[in-house]
Amino acid sequence: MYQYDTLDREFLADRAAEFREQVDRRLKGEITEDQFKPLRLMNGLYLQLHAYMLRVAIPYGSLNGVQLRKLADIGRRYDKGYGHFTTRTNLQFHWIKLKDTPSILDELASVDLHAIQTSGNCIRNVTSDPYAGATAEEIDDPRVWSEAIRQWSMLHPEFSFLPRKFKFAVTASPKDRTAAKVHDIGLVVRRARDGTLGFEVIVGGGMGRTPHVGPTIREFLPANRLFSYLDAILRVYNRHGRRDNKYKARIKILVSSLGAEEFGRQVEAEWEKVGVDGDLPDTEIARIRGAFAPKAFDTLVNRSEAFEQAKAADPAFARFARNNLKPHKRAGYSIVEISLKGIGDTPGDATSDQMDVIAELGELYGQDDIRVTHEQNLVLPHVKLDDAPKVFAALQAAGLATPNINLISDIIACPGLDYCALANARAINVAQDIATRFADQDRAELIGELKIKISGCINACGHHHVGHVGILGVDKKGEEFYQLTLGGSGAEDAAVGKILGPALPANKVTDAIDTLVDVYLRERQDGERFLDTYRRTGDAPFKEAVYADAR
Amino acid sequence: MKALTANRLSDGEVVFWKAGQWVERFADAELFDDAQAAAGEAAEGHAKSQPTVVVEPYLIDLIESEGLWAPLSYRERIRALGPTNHPTHGKQAEGGAVIAALQHAHGAARSTGRVDLIKRK
């Protein structure tokens, strides 16, 4: 993984020291809350319902063991012994004290972590493929470009006060695990017929109150021209994005009001002006690429006897292998997904003890490489099949071996009204109820891939618009109600879900999910996922069944 | 009936006003009935002059629950109790009659007190 140099480390230390001074001045009353608030937000510190929340950036979801142990340690010493992984592949601590925050930033800086650009109208943490460097599907390693974007966007003076926040996703596989089409900019690595590396550039996707699947404004951008082109996009947005209305300030509104073609034309015109001066030298990309050079893989055969024997001996391991292990590019290796969706647990939460276990497994069996997914799970991308039974046993002992990746209980949920100052309704309890209803793993596997995503407000941190089944918490005269949307997808077949009907009271939601599943199982044709069946039949049979039950 | 609440500046803890002091338990909060509305507003004014102690003080509406008083809005009940997914986190861990009354309160209404904070996020 990429290593910070002395300059980076000095900067982080300075930044933490600066925040210590700012906190001190606030506590002494030398600056007001109005003056302090933007400063704390620039360091990822929010005030929520019960305490301060610190959002730590995990660049493109990539961590090593030392960093994860440090997060565990901070959780133990400054929080309540846990952390919450988010849909932006960050980690949030929900019980932070303002007076402790400068010391926490020092601790983070000691392992090259920080909370910069996890809030505010700037370029936020880049989302990338959690299988980067491990999947045979990829054309290039998307972390190289994600890291380059991180460096370019870090404290970028021109792009630190954009009309609104700005999120990138970078993927290099046909199977999109980054939700690229619902980011402000989605970059999909492509290779031209002549072998030139480049990007499909998708701009203006997003969720929130006005969801959009982003249009492609350029089918192929040569990779060596990436940064001048990004400059051009951000300049057009900075100039014309709406600053008068925060609900219309995201780039998706600009792109949709101008039309993708006109927006693209303006970007091209701006790009001419930026010229090659805005590009990163090839030598710099090569330097960054060096940091992601694959570590030495052993030469193995595809079949691992230890793995096969463990599967035959232990049905629980066989089930885990079936659902949580994904193919690796190298023979004899596997990508191991660690579900943070234990049945009845809080989606995305990991205790400090669990983080320590995962850090150790990463170090012992996974080339010291740990990833966070936007679906709030963790990944060990490089595990030998021979070692998979040992990894499983350790995960099982730590309560981390839930075999439900991509199944109905692998639910995304934002923190919702249990923590968040913006939420209208809870989300976690809805996820817990649904997961508990579908705790029977045989049934969950029979149902197959079904992505439920829950948000506690229209800001859509829980990605409800792109859930196969989306659930949005709304406040109806002070009661928690939930609106269902069907047919969304955040993957390569991205779509915004369609509202099924009137919102349901909280105690009817899990029954409604059960009904949707029954309809799907009745209607599905061979090989169809829930989403495929829905797309074929439309919403009529689902709507009829859910609202017949609700009457 | 109303109570005055805020988050403590130094640690974000949810606090309630009690006769010129800030207390952590809703059970200890000073309650202002309609006849004491002016006193409630005066307390709010006083609280706003303590920017190094609390952030965003505001009055919340209360309703009766099990013969006791509970915040009217669901959001305020969660603030006074703690998150529903972790019964051992927050003030609810302590238990007691007032906590139970809050947990059983019904007929929620949206909090008005945090609107400013929400808008300014």
In words, what does this structure look like?
With 551 residues, chain A is an alpha+beta fold. The radius of gyration of chain A is 23 Å and the shape is globular. By secondary structure, chain B is of the alpha+beta class. Helices cover 28% and strands 26% of the residues of chain B. Chain B has four helices and five strands. Chain B has a five-stranded antiparallel sheet with strand order 3-2-1-4-5, sandwiched between helices. In chain B, strand 4 and strand 5 form a beta hairpin. The chains are: A alpha+beta (551), B alpha+beta (121). Chains A and B meet through helix 1, strand 5 and helix 14 of A and helix 2 and helix 4 of B.
Ranges of chain A where pLDDT stays below 50 over 5 or more residues in a row are none
Strand order of the largest sheet of chain B: 3-2-1-4-5
Mean pLDDT of chain B: 89
Tell me what portion of residues of chain B adopts beta-strand conformation: 25-35%
Q: Over all CA atoms, what is the radius of gyration of chain B?
A: 14 Å
Radius of gyration of chain A: 23 Å
- Which class best fits the helix and strand makeup of chain A? alpha+beta
Mean pLDDT of chain A: 97
Q: Main interface pair?
A: A-B, 37 and 32 residues
| Oligomer kind | heterodimer
Gap between N and C termini of chain A, in Å? 55 Å
**Sheet of most strands of chain A:** 6 strands, mixed
What series of H and E elements makes up the topology of chain B?
EEEHEEHHH
- Global morphology of chain A: globular
Total helical elements of chain B: 4
**Percent in strands of chain A:** 15-25%
Tell how many strands the DSSP assignment of chain A holds.
21
**Percent of residues in helices of chain B:** 25-40%
Global geometry of chain B:
globular
